[in-house]
Design brief:
Rossmann fold; alpha/beta; 14-stranded mixed sheet; 16 strands; 18 helices; about 600 residues
Length: about 600
């Protein structure tokens, strides 16, 4: 109703209106400034969202930003599992602005600082506006990436427009990052993985409340990219989390990625090092925990950023960790293969990879940042699977490293002339092999369907590539180049403006068609449990079967079904992994965790 007008109701009329509002628990308010708001009553209290319109098709939607799903994780709750948010009733929560992002130091976007706080456990809900009273829409819940140490669910990169245009609901969320989200003091009470526990609580909140937003809580799809893909996969492995979603999409990261788990038994010693570095050495575990619970966040945030994932030893310090069996709230205590072997994981899952993931490394200063000549002289790289503990100076490692070098470079020198095989090597090591292993493991051990697609589009919305100067001069999609086709990335608005202002340009057509295709696949998967429905956007996208990896290639020319993507390289790395297992078994150094 317009606030500038006055209405005079009789008693009966007032009773009818109040009853109607109570039943549907939704009302609209239009301000004198023209903005249209919507109020929804969640189990924790009412929230006021605001009307917006999508970029391409001009579809109206309601946006609810900064809804808290957990109590502020400070004081006694720092480094512990989150507590559900307390009700804010009778206050109406103004959900028109994003909440603070979680404390972080951004290496990916240092020029774009965000409002940060430890009080950051918020989620955002985006809903098409023209919903019938009895309609329930499928829901997609997104876990952002950022090397486990940075990022947020905000619309600078994860705007809802293109998914809203497919008539689904989108939920994005924040979770604790870096040291705040993962550190384990290796005690029952402080066992780590707070980020995973945050996400699980957010999923529980969505399951309990999405009906109020006209969502179908029996059709919730979890998805995430890069580190978010790993975290989404770990949620699949949790029997508790699986109660809160139906299926999942994992982009450019899985729990089988080598960097997907932190090194075992390392956080306690790191915590002591941090305390000493801050001039506050601690002589007991209890005093160490007390120190970390009270030290200002700004004093330890510098220790929360990611070590480089893209060096020859891509070990992530702050990442999911196996918790001890005596943990009070353990999230994961075994590696994925062991969980698959003993669990009935019935989550239909779609795995995805960009065609040349490590092209994201390339920028105008590439030759200054990456010592190709040194790599040529001393070829060594960490193998892309857990438990490969061969010393770089061992005879066995050198033999296998020589095989790797020959597979990618033959007898050529490693320099700017062999840049493409160099990027292919890093793509396979850091991303492709982990995604391939994760998809095959899920297909083999799960009773559910497993789909696989590759994103190969190279056009106007490949934001990462364009921000990095246009790439190294060969076609392909690098890491995260798919994101601005799935989401409206407000940071990339000039790229959208360029395409929308020249709709007849061939590259504009390619970009807009790719948006339609990829979001249609996602929306179909959320709605119907299949990425194609009634042969749209394509027929013939089959799940992986026992004999071959069926996949779909999303290209500049459209959607292309195929089999066994990157087969030679994946078979080569499977051979290397078997060789390492045999060497370590013979030397009695074989790590029996997961190989």
């Amino acid at each position: 109703m317009k606030s500038s007008k006055k209405f005079h109701f009789g008693v009966n009329t007032i009773f009818i209106v109040v009853t109607f509002i109570f039943i549907v628990i939704v009302c609209f308010v239009k301000s004198s400034a023209g903005a249209e708001y919507k109020i929804v009553e969640t189990k924790d209290g009412k929230v006021r969202g605001v009307r917006d319109t999508t970029l391409i098709k001009k579809v109206d939607f309601d946006s609810f930003k900064g809804i808290p799903y957990a109590e502020n994780p400070i004081g006694e709750l720092r480094y512990k599992a989150p507590e559900p948010v307390k009700s804010w009733a009778p206050i109406i929560l103004n959900a028109t602005e994003f909440g603070s992002t979680c404390t972080q130091i951004s290496l990916l976007a240092p020029e774009n600082p965000l409002q940060q706080s430890e009080n950051c456990l918020f989620l955002n809900v985006y809903v098409p506006a023209d919903i019938e009273s009895d309609e329930k829409l499928a829901v997609l819940v997104y876990i952002h990436g950022g090397a486990f140490t940075e990022g947020s669910g905000n619309d600078d990169m994860f705007g809802p427009d293109f998914l809203i245009e497919q008539r689904v609901i989108l939920v994005t969320l924040n979770y604790r990052l870096g040291i705040f989200g993962f550190i384990s003091f290796e005690t029952p009470e402080y066992s780590g993985n707070m980020a995973l526990k945050d996400q699980q609580l957010a999923l529980k909140w969505v399951q309990a409340n999405i009906k109020q937003f006209s969502g179908d809580n029996k059709r919730i799809t979890l998805f995430g990219e890069s580190a978010g893909g790993v975290l989404s996969h770990v949620q699949i492995l949790s029997s508790e989390s699986r109660k809160y979603f139906r299926n999942a999409i994992l982009l450019s990261g899985t729990a089988e990625s080598d960097w997907g788990f932190a090194s075992k038994n390392g956080h306690r010693s790191i915590a002591h090092e941090i305390a000493r570095d801050l001039g506050k050495p601690q002589d007991s575990m209890q005093s160490l925990i007390n120190f970390f619970k009270t030290v200002p966040a700004e004093s330890i945030v510098k220790y929360a950023s990611a070590a480089s994932l893209f060096t020859k030893t891509p070990v992530t310090t702050w990442a999911p960790i196996l918790e001890r069996g005596d943990a009070i709230h353990p999230f994961i205590v075994e590696y994925p293969k062991a969980i698959y072997n003993k669990s009935n994981i019935d989550v239909d899952t779609m795995f995805a990879l960009c065609s040349l993931e490590s092209m994201m490394l390339y920028n105008e200063k590439f030759e200054d940042c990456y010592d190709l000549k040194g790599f040529d002289r001393n070829f060594s790289i960490t193998f892309p699977f857990r438990g490969a503990d061969l010393p770089f100076d061992s005879t066995e490692y050198k033999k296998l490293a020589a095989e790797v070098r020959y597979f990618y470079f033959k007898d050529a020198a490693i320099d700017v002339q062999t840049l493409k095989p160099y990027i292919s090597l890093l793509s396979d090591v850091f991303f492709a092999y982990g995604v391939d292993k994760g998809a095959k493991l899920h297909a083999k051990k799960s009773a559910a369907k497993t789909f696989y697609y590759r994103f190969s589009v190279d056009s106007k919305f490949n934001a990462i590539k364009r921000w990095h100067g246009g790439g190294p001069g060969f076609a392909g999609a690098g890491h995260a180049d798919d994101l601005c086709y799935i989401f409206r990335c407000r940071n990339a608005q000039p790229f959208y403006d360029e395409a929308l202002s020249t709709p007849d340009d061939e590259q504009s057509k390619i970009s807009l068609r790719a948006v339609e295709n990829i979001t249609k696949l996602f929306a179909n998967f959320a709605k119907y449990g299949e990425p194609t429905y009634q042969q749209e956007p394509i027929a013939g996208f089959l799940p992986i079967d026992d004999d071959q990896v069926n996949f779909l290639d999303v290209t500049n020319d459209g959607l292309m079904p195929g089999v066994n993507p990157n087969q030679k390289a994946m078979e080569f790395w499977a051979h290397v992994e078997r060789e390492v297992q045999e060497i370590q078994a013979k030397s009695k150094q074989f790590v029996h965790e997961e190989l």
